[in-house]
Specification:
By secondary structure, the chain is an alpha/beta fold. It has 11 helices and 8 strands. Strands 1-2-3-4-5-6-7-8 form an 8-stranded parallel β-barrel, surrounded by 6 helices. The longest helix has 19 residues. The radius of gyration is 17 Å and the shape is globular. The structure holds phosphoenolpyruvate (PEP). Phosphoenolpyruvate (PEP) binds next to strand 8.
Amino acid sequence: MSTKKRRKVIAGNWKMNMTPTEAKELAKGVYEQVKGKKGCDVVVCVPFVDIPAVAQIVKGTIIKLGAQNVHFEEKGAYTGELSADMLKAVGCEYVIVGHSERRQYFAETDQTVNKRALAALNAGLKVIICVGESLQQREEGVTEELVRMQTKIALRDVTAEQMANVVIAYEPIWAIGTGKTATADQAEEVCGQIRKVIGEVYGEAVAEATTVQYGGSMNAKNCEELLSKKDVDGGLIGGASLKAPDFAVIVNAATKG
Ligand code: PEP
């Protein structure tokens, strides 16, 4: 049983993988592996077209459904985009905002990440806001400054009350999909810095209550050490979330506390 006050969140990011038929099978597999688990929230963030199929499987289970992006306007001429209300209407509880792949390939900026986070929160969704440095930025010694800035801008105009629906995912870009994981100490250090900046903006109580995840090649082998760190409150998991047994090992590690 966890002694931490914060809720731990293990979220799978399926990225652009799985047709609806495949997604249904994977969701069933995840359900079989994690049913009855207590002590952490389990989320699957699936491609938009898979949402209805996965919603059917996870309804009434401990698994919560999430999307991988949301637009910042409520409606209108934004071809190819989906609003927060649309995601809610099809059963999403969570949405990832500002993933580095969105920043890198789709020109997301700290400002649009903030707008998307606000739109999602104002519609009643929970957000997983991703921040993290590139390898070059780490080597230049600016990780802390960068992550502080990304976090502060992403949270602009987010109220202290809304922080109950915010998860921050520290995702060093050099560790995403590369098989190179941050060491547990590196993850702990930056997750702690994120908590510190949240404390500066919202005060100690909000900082202590906010879930800060690590993401970047977390897998069945390294999860236990990463999740044992006091400021690492869960994980955002890409590759390993596509294999139900591996994902379940990570969920298990998170329930140990
Ligand atoms: C991610 O997509 O957020 C991620 C961390 O991917 P991976 O686990 O594959 O590195």
